[in-house]
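Subject: design request, 231 residues
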């Protein structure tokens, strides 16, 4: 049994193929630290024409994902297990943040519902969805990419997913809410551009101090809001 089970519901599930089968998300599934199940809304269409969307009542542009297939899919999943969250991706949802990723990474079962076209029938949002999440104040064409971003942010926090060298604990926002420090790798001198001397000193205390100073400096300059919280 994996630590976290994710069910992804979408009208265009092919979008998930590469992201879920590459790099860290793939490795996490291979190690059985997370299980990700994709559900194609078309498989839950109930009418003879396999419709999953229709025009909006009251008129206007765009199609709306219908109640029937989404209720059928989510009700079936809920009958099989208890979910911590049934989340709808939406630009008017709560803005996603590292703190949310941290707490979601401790969950057991989560459903992500991706909208498409103009959105989903409001009755779904009012009767099935437990939280609505936005990736920011801009609109993309479907909830698939937002869901993938959130899933990636969650899964990389599950112990054992990242190796020591990639540890998420030293990333931006994790380290006392500070931004990450600058990083360098070989060669020590590229053209006339040199790597700061201290990083080559081998003095771990000094390196730690330098990195913290740089993180503080950068946060103060780029994100005064975070700096204020840190102080
Ligand atoms: N009419 C909607 C936008 C529909 S875009 C509105 O103005 O609010 C189609 C789908 O893309 C949405 O149903 C949602 O699932 C997803 N989506 C678009 N922008 C998003 C964002 N910033 N965050 C999360 N999901 C988003």
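Subject: RE: design request

Done. Sequence follows.
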């Amino acid at each position: 049994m994996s630590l976290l089970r994710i069910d992804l519901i979408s009208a265009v599930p092919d979008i998930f193929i590469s992201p879920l089968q590459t790099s860290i998300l793939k490795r996490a599934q291979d190690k059985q630290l997370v299980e990700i199940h994709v559900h194609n809304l078309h498989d839950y269409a109930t009418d003879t024409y396999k419709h999953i969307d229709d025009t909006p009542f009251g008129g206007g542009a765009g199609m709306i994902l219908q109640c029937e297939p989404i209720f059928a899919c989510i009700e079936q999943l809920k009958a099989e297990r208890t979910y911590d969250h049934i989340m709808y991706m939406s630009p008017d949802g709560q803005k996603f943040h590292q703190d949310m990723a941290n707490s979601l990474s401790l969950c057991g079962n989560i459903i992500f519902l991706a909208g498409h076209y103009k959105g989903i029938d409001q009755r779904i949002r009012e009767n099935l969805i437990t939280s609505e999440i936005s990736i920011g104040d801009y609109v993309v064409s479907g909830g698939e990419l937002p869901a993938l971003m959130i899933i990636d942010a969650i899964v990389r926090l599950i112990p054992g997913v990242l190796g020591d060298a990639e540890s998420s604990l030293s990333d931006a926002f994790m380290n006392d809410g500070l931004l990450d420090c600058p990083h360098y790798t070989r060669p020590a001198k590229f053209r006339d551009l040199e790597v700061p001397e201290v990083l080559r000193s081998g003095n771990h205390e000094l390196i730690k101090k330098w990195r913290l100073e740089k993180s503080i400096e950068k946060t103060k300059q780029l994100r005064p809001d975070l700096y204020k919280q840190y102080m």
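The radius of gyration is 22 Å.
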